Amino acid sequence: MDAVNLTQKLALFTKQWHPHLIAEGRDLQVFLSKLQGEFVMHSHDNGDELFYVVTGRMEMCFKTNTVEVREGEIILVPRAVEHCPRTRPDEEAEVLVVELLGTAHTGAVKHERTVETYERI
Fold first, then answer.
1. Cα separation of 89 and 105, whole Å?
2. What is the Cα–Cα distance from 116 to 114, expressed in whole angstroms?
3. Does 112 fall in a domain?
4. Closest C-alpha among 31, 52, 43, 34 to residue 81
5. How many domains are there within the chain?
6. CB–CB of 87/71 below 8 Å?
7. How much is the CA Rg of the chain, to the nearest whole Å?
8. Which of 7, 50, 72, 78 has its CB surrounded by the most CB atoms within 10 Å?
9. CA 12, CA 8: separation in Å to the nearest integer?
10. What's the domain range around 111?
11. pLDDT beyond 80 at 50
């Protein structure tokens, strides 16, 4: 077990909407991602998903409302709740995502931004 420096790991990539695996346990996977613009509405039937905004700000859009999540804040998306992360078009957010091991990137939704193989950094 080693500590993971988020700043160092975030400096290793620029590609947006592509989760990079930074830790994996028996039950959980932890990613870093860079977000800009709008993603795709989706859900995860197998478990909850936690987002921690490392830098910037994002919005988590749900069917009935939108929640702003600022730097240093988290949002927990419950299992099976449709959601769509987004930022303002000219802003980037860097986020840490924690979810159950084996969770599909966009749930059952297949989209051009769906990632099936995660790069470990």
1. 22
2. 6
3. yes
4. 43
5. 1
6. no
7. 13
8. 50
9. 7
10. 6-120
11. yes
pLDDT at 105: 79
Q: Is residue 72 part of a domain?
A: yes
CA dihedral of 93, 46, 22, 7, whole degrees rounded to 10: 20
Which of helix, strand or coil describes residue 43? coil
The string of pLDDT tens digits covering residues 67-114 is 999 999 999 999 999 999 999 999 999 999 999 998 887 777 676 776
Q: Is residue 52 part of a domain?
A: yes
**CATH code for the domain in which residue 116 is found:** 2.60.120.10
What pLDDT score was predicted for residue 20? 97
Instruction: Give 10's pLDDT tier (boundaries 50, 70, 90).
Output: very high
Asked whether the beta carbons of 107 and 41 are under 8 A apart, the reply is no
Q: Quote the pTM value.
A: 0.93
Structure tokens belonging to residue 85: 């992360």
pLDDT at site 83: 97
Domain membership flag for residue 1: no
Task: Give φ, ψ of 7 to 5 degrees.
Answer: -60, -45
